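Dear support,

Our group has been running a series of protein-ligand predictions, and this particular one with coenzyme A is the one our PI (initials K.S.) wants archived with full inputs and outputs. We had some confusion internally about which version of the output was final, so please treat the block below as the authoritative record. The input we submitted was:
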Amino acid sequence: MEVTSTPDMSNGRPDTTNVGLRGITVADTKISDVQAEEGRLVYRGYDIQTLAARSDFEEVVFLLLYGDLPLDSEYGRLHHRLGERRQVSPHILELVRQYPQDLRPMDFLQAAVPLLKMGDPRPDDSKEAVRERAVDLTAKMATLVAAYHRLRSGLEPIEADPELDHAADFLRMLSGETPDKEVAHLLDVALLLHADHSMNASTFVARAVTSTRAHTYSAVAAAIGALSGELHGGANSRVMEMLLEIQEPDRVEGYIEERLSRGEKIMGMGHRVYATYDPRSLILQDLIRQLGGDRDLHWLKLTQEVEKSTRRIFRQLKGKDIYPNVDLYSASLYYMMGIPVDLFTPVFAMSRVAGWCAHCIEERFAEAAEKPALYRPLARYVGHYCGPEECTYEPMAERHQP
Ligand code: COA
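Confirmed final output from the archive:
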C-alpha cells in the first residue's frame, strides 16, 4: 500500500492539497481501476468497454464478488439466485407500507435496507456468507425501489419474476409491464456501467463502516446515504431537473453562462479523478444514439448542447477543460425509459450495491499481508483555546458575553 504523507504545515499555512482525501491512497484493491489520463475503467482487469459490449450486469455482479468471470453453470446459478432473492417477504413489505410515502426514495432506501437483515440468508460471518448477503442485497434493493414507487403511486407492489434478467424484472416490477428487449438491454448496460468505480465517496464509506466490523447491511445503508448527495450519485436527478428547466436547445447557452458566471456547478460535468472523458458517458451516449425506431432524441440532443456549452464557457472562464461524467448521459437515458426522475439515484444504488459489497468483502477478508485496520484518519484542530493549554470552565452564572 502506498504510504502518503500528512499535510505539510511548514510555511505556517495549512496545506489543502489533501483536503477531502484528494490524492490519498487509503486501501489496496483488486476490484476496479480508474485510469485518469486515459479515461479508462477496468473491473477485475476487464475494460468496461468490452464488458458493456459483450457481458451483462449479472455476469459483472459475479465478476465483482468472486474475482473472475463465471463458468456457464456458475452464471446460471447466480441468475437463479438473483431471481429467487428478488422476492421480499410479506413481513418486510408490510413494514415498507408503513413508511411515509413522501420520503425521498434514497432516504426510504437507506432506511429500508437494514430491514433485509431479518431475512439474512446465512447469518454467520464467513466470506461465503457475506457473498450470499451481497447477492441478496443486490436482488432485493431492486424490489424495494419498485415496491416503494408503486405504493406511493397508490398501486400494489408486483411480485418478482425469477425467470427474467434483473434489469428487465426491475422495469416490470416498476411499471407492471414487461419492457421491450431494447429498453431492458439499455438498463442492463447502464447497471453494468455503474457497478463499481474504485474508491468513490460511497465506496469509501462502505469500507470505513466495514472496517469497524459492522455488518454488510449497515455498510450498504451508510453508502446509500453518501451516494444520495448531489455531488455524487444524486447528480443524475439534478441533471434531469436542469434539462427540464432548460427545455429547448436555444436556451442552453444562456442558462450555462449564467450559472457558471455565478460560480455555480453544472451537474453531470467534472470528475475528481478523470482528466478526460469519463468512458461511461461515452458508452451511454452511443447507446442512446443507437436506439431504434422513432424514439425522440430531444433530451439526448439537449444534453449534448449542455456538454458543448459547459466545456466552451468553462474554458473561457477558468482556462482549463471540463468533461462530462456518467451522470450527464444516464439522466436522459433513464428519462427516455420512463423511470421517474427521483428514482434515478436509487437505480444507481441498485447497481453500485454490487461494488460496495465486493469492497466490503475485500475490506473484511483481505490477505494477511494487506490486512486493513480500522479507518481512523486524523484531523487538524483549528479551533481556539482560551488559555495557553485549554479553556477554563466557568460556571454558567459567571459567564459573560464577549
Ligand atoms: N460545474 C462548474 N464548475 C465546476 C464543476 C462543474 N460541474 N466541476 C468542477 N468545477 C470547478 C469548481 O468550481 C472549481 O473551480 P475553482 O478551482 O475555481 O474553485 C474547480 O472546477 C475544481 O472543482 P472541485 O469541486 O474542487 O473539483 P473536484 O475534483 O472535487 O470535483 C466534482 C469533482 C465531481 C465534485 C465536481 O466536478 C462537481 O461538483 N461536479 C458536479 C456534480 C457531479 O456531476 N457529480 C457527479 C460526479 S460522478
